Amino acid sequence: MTTNSPPLLPGRLGAPDLLLKDDPRADPRMIAAMAVFGLDGAQEPAPVTTSSPIDELIDYCGTAEEGFEALFGAMAIGLPTVEGVTRSVEVINGVDGNDITLYLHRPTDATGPLPGVLHLHGGGMVILEAAGAGYVRWRDDLAATGLVVVGVEFRNGAGKHGPHPFPAGLNDCSSALQWVTDNKARLGISTLVVSGESGGGNLTLATTLKAKRDGRLGQID
How far apart are CA 213 and CA 49, in angstroms? Predict the structure, then answer.
C-alpha cells in the first residue's frame, strides 16, 4: 500500500525560504536586472506589522515610498528618450470636491481618433505617484505605440498623496473615467481601456465594478 504525498505548492508557498535567484520559474534576465539593486535575494522584514499604530504605519509607508521612487528613477537612467510623444497636464475636480491631476501622453503626429488607456499606477493604493519617473516612462512607451494615455494622480492611503482612507483613491479614478468619457472627442479617443498593475490593477477592477454599479459600464470598452 502506498500513500500519495500532496503536490509541492509553487514558489514560496511550497518552499518558504526560496529566493528569487533560486526560483526555477524566474527568467534569468529578470534576475540579473534585479541583482543590480540587491533584489534577487532575501530582504529585511518590514519593521511594522498589521497591529502597529497607524502613525507608525504611515511613517513607514512614507519611507518605503522614497525608496521605491529612487529605485524606479535609477532604472530609468540611461534609457533613450521616447521620441514622438507629446505630454500635457489637466487638473479636474473630483466627486469629493478635490483636485485631481491627470497626465496625458499622446503620439505627436497622430491623426484621427486613437485607442485610449486610463492608467492607474501601482503602490498598493498606499504609496507612489503617477508623476514618478517609472510611470512617466511607461506612459511614453504606451503612447509611442499609437495610444492616448491618461495617468491618474489619485489620493493614496499614505505617502506624498496621503493619508486618505478608502474610497478616496477609487473615487478619484472613477472621476477620471467620467472626465475622459466626457472629453473623448476633444482628446481624440475612440475606445477606452482601464489598466493598471499591482495596486493599480486592484483599482482597475474596483473602478470597473463601480462603473457597473453606477450604470456607467459602457464607458469602458
Answer: 34
pTM: 0.90
Rounded to the nearest 5 percent, the helix, strand and coil shares of the chain are 40, 20, 45
> Smallest Cα–Cα separation from 207: which of 101, 95, 69, 87?
95
166 vs 154: CA distance, rounded Å: 11
How far is Cα of residue 167 from the mean position of the Cα atoms in its chain?
Answer: 17
Mean pLDDT of all residues in 7-11: 85
Contact status, residue 200 vs residue 141, Cβ threshold 8 Å: no
DSSP string, 110-174: --S-EEEEEEE--STTTS--TTSHHHHHHHHHHHHTT-EEEEEEPPPSSSTT----TTHHHHHHH
More confident residue, 117 or 79: 117
